[in-house]
Amino acid sequence: MSANILTSKCVLVTGATAGIGRALAREIRDLPTHPTVIVTGRRQARLDELAKEGFETVKFDMDTTPDKIKAFADEVVGKYPKLDAIILNAAIQNMVNFAEPEKVDLSKISREFNINYLAVVSMMTAFLPHLIKIGNERPALLIPVTSDLSMIPLAPVCNYSATKAALHSLIFSLRIQMENAKTNVHVLEIIPPLVESELHDAEGRTETVSKYWMPLAEFTSTVMDGLKEGKIAITAGWATATYDRFEKPKEGFRNGMMNVDMQN
Fold it and tell me: Which InterPro entries did the record assign (predicted)?
C-alpha cells in the first residue's frame, strides 16, 4: 500500500517551536485531510502560542534518557491512539575546532550527539511498536530529518555533520528492516540543505549563513510536495544534487540487501 502524508490521521512533530518543525506542522495542519497535529518542544511560551493555533502540544526536551523518552511515547500513544506519523526534527548545532583541542567542550559534543542521534534512535524504538500495530489498519510513517551534511560534512560543524551521517546511515537500514519484516511502516527521510532557521543563533552565525540559506517557505513547499508523494528521500536545494550524485546509486544496492537474511 502506498503511503504519504495525505493518508495520515494524526501526526507528531518534534522540535516544532521554530524553524523547519513549526513550518511543517502548520502546513500539515492545513492539509485538506485535516489531521490532528501534535507539536513538541522545550519552550512553553512557544507551545502556548501554537496551542492557540489549534495544535495539540506537549512540552518535551530531547536531551534526556531512553527511559524518559519511553515514558513520553507511552503518554502520547495513550492520549492519541490514532497517531500514525512521526516527524523527528529536533536537533542542535555547535561549532567545534579540533585544531584547538584545549577549547573543545566534550560536554557540548555529548549533548549534540544525544539530541541529534541517540534520542532520535530512542524515540523511534519507543514508538515503533505502536506504528507497527497501526500498520495493520493503515500505513504508518516514520520521518527523521537529517541534513545534506550527512553526505558531505562541513568542517566547522563536524560533530553535527557526524550525528546526521550516523542517523542517515541508520535510516537506510531501518527502511530495509521494516520492509523485510513486511510491516506497513514507511520510513521517509527529509534531507535539508542550509535552511532559514534559528538553529544557527546559538553560535551567533545567523548573519553570516543567512546570505546562503534557502528561504524557509521555499523549503517547506518542496518538502510538502515530497511528503504528499511519499518519497523515501525528500531533498531540496543543493541537497538534491548532492543526494543524486552520492546517495541515489545506493538504491540499487538496497534492493539486493533486502534479500539478505543475516540470521542464516
Answer: NAD(P)-bd_dom_sf, Sc_DH/Rdtase_CS, SDR_fam
